[in-house]
Each structure stands twice: as C-alpha cells, then as structure tokens.
Amino acid sequence: MTTDIRPLVEMRDIHISFGGVKAVDGVSIDLYPGEVVGVLGHNGAGKSTLIKILSGAYVADSGTVIVDGKEARIENARDARDHNIETIYQNLALADNLDAAQNLFLGREITDRFGFLNDAAMEHKAREVLHRLNPNFQKFASPVSALSGGQRQSVAIARALLFEARVLIMDEPCAALGVHETRMVGDLIAQLKQDGLGILLISHDLHDVFDLSDRLHVMKNGKLVGSVRTEDVTHDDVLGMIILGKMPQHLLHLAGPGATNIHGATLRPQDTETTGPTL
User: Fold this and answer.
1) With the CA atoms of 203, 204, 207 and 208 taken in that order, what torsion angle do they form, in degrees rounded to the nearest 10?
2) What is the pTM of this model?
3) Higher-pLDDT residue of 58, 272
4) Where are the domains of the chain?
5) Hey, what CATH class is 1-84+166-279 in?
6) Inter-residue contact 156 to 129 (CB < 8 Å)
C-alpha cells in the first residue's frame, strides 16, 4: 500500500538553458526517505544537469526545489549542504595523499582550544563513522590512494554522513569497480536506505540501477519521459524509455512530457500516490 510519508526532496517544473539549448525543460521529480531513485538517460538527456541544480553547481532559470516540505533556494554547494544534501561525484573528490580521517574533515577540521588540529578527535570520529558503514575497514593510517575502489567509496560516503546528510546524490558509484567492490557499494547503499536516507543514483549501467533502485526517473532531450517503480518494468522497457522515449503500455498514465507515445502528457497530482514508496 502507499504511504503518507512526505518527500525529502521535490523538484518541480525545473528549467535551465545554455544559450538556445534547453538542457532541462519542465522536469519534476521527487525522492522519499529510505529509497533509492535512479535518474537515467542517454548522454545529453539532462540528468546530470538536473542533479547539479539540486547539488548547487547550477542555478535553475525557473522552477521550485522543496526540501522537507519547504521551498529551498539552492545557489551553491554550501546551500545544498545547509539542507543536508551531499553529492558524491564519480571521481569521489578525495585527496589521494591524505588518510581517511584527513579526507573526512578536509576543510572542516577539528581544532583544540589553542587552534591546533585535534588529530585524535578526528581519527576517533572517522573510525566511528567508517565502522558503521564498513566494520572491516582497517586502513585508517594509509593514504586513500592505497585503498580499493570500494574502500574509497566508503570514505566518500562517510564524509557525507559525518555532516548529517539526509539526501545523497551518487554519480556512477560502481563505475570501474570489480564484482566484489560493486557488491560492497551495494551493501553500503542498502544500509543507508535502512537508516532513512534518500539516494539519487545516476548510472549508465542498467544492472546496477535495477539491483539498487526502488524507482526510476527517465529523461530524454531535457524532458521527463516518466517515473516508474523498478519492479514494474523490465530492462527492455527502460531501454525503450531511454532510447525512444516510449513508455511501457501498462504505465502510460505515468508518462511525462518527454514520452513520444503520449505527447504533452504530464504526471497528474493523483499519480504521485502510485509512484511513491510502498510498504
């Protein structure tokens, strides 16, 4: 059955253009607590641009971002963090020459009353957060360049959690990872879901998306093709949405303005119950 939980984040009628190109054209998406939502589309579909608006890298030309039921003005990364929105980019943005604790507190170091770095306090907190994510993590004194891909993802996620992220944007989290490391990242995401975080997942790998996501927002040419529950679609259905902009026949009522088989259709308010999380 559907729940009455309020979305963590809603993006309504978002528009942004670069010159004469409409990179995002009237897109509306949402994200609920404790769910993973995949944002899919071919190169140039607008998915990365849309997410960069939420993360504060871009400012939308028009539209509304709502966080916890209140309208939010996000003009930079600091604004996003103030609303407990953190982004983990594909390159993880880690300093390879620093260890895990130094990366977690980079730019937000703990100091003592004399203004000196409190390394013991930072390492203690780093151990606490990382062990919550990965009980087997041991290489606290090693530079992150010596860590595996899965361990580096642990450090990047821990950095976001350390400052109380409630919305996590993950850009290609399993790119260039082996099978074991991909499984490790999947376990981390499952734990974050259990803790009530909302995760927006950008990925080109349909297998990762189907394994990890509860719902999918599919974009094409800057428009939303549709929003569907992962369990309601097949790989072929989603490929059709990505490449052709074609909604599956049994989900035509959820078509967005980017759908080619229902021109101009939009998500109706009564449809949000259908697309929301289920118990």
Assistant:
1) -20
2) 0.81
3) 58
4) 1-84+166-279, 94-165
5) alpha beta
6) no
